[in-house]
Amino acid sequence: MTPARLVHTLQLMDSFFPVGAFAYSDGLESAAARGLVHDADSLAGWLDHFINAVFVPCEGLALLKCVRAAEKGDWAGIRSIDEELTALKPAAAARTSSKSVGKRLLTMYAGLVNDSELLAFMETLPNCNAPVAYGVVLSHRGLEGRDALPAFGYVRLAGIVSAALRLIALGQQQGQALLTKAIEHLLIAAEHILRAEAEPLRSFGPLMDVQQMSHRYVYSRLFRS
Q1: pTM of this structure
Q2: Residue 189 neighbours by CB under 8 Å, 6+ apart
């Protein structure tokens, strides 16, 4: 990765980049309200569950497939992946949050690089899921799949830890320690995804799915999902 690509990637991955991901907890708020995630150890389990059950077989794999498709100009393939991702999300709130983040990312990025074709393509996406949007944007920035996977994975993990800091008794030092450990797991997971590129997308994360569907019933909420 060139220095220019590295810096632009950091810009896109930074929480300062306004995609609105801070408004969503992906079910963590519901899990915290029910006492399922209440300290550093239980949060570590939540992070591991996300990597193993969501990132490896679904979100990360979808991102890699989108990067590969974008490299070949296979826009129909990307649209197909977008539809499949939506079908694999049982919780309506998770579908809405993924679409919201994805659309804001593509819209903001296309405006920054002044690419009208990218904006036009966005309008053809059925849902514009976040992994699809990040795959398209990172490919447009010249990143290969091996680099795009940990970049997107970091955004997802950092978002979980950031939400946890507002939901449970967790200090900044503990949060960063957990994130560091999760990143090590993420890098191993990225290698696994690269070896499993030809496999179909799949999802079996009942712990997160149930909490995402239950979020609407949390009495007092900080997050939209």
Answers
A1: 0.94
A2: 51, 52, 55, 56, 60, 153
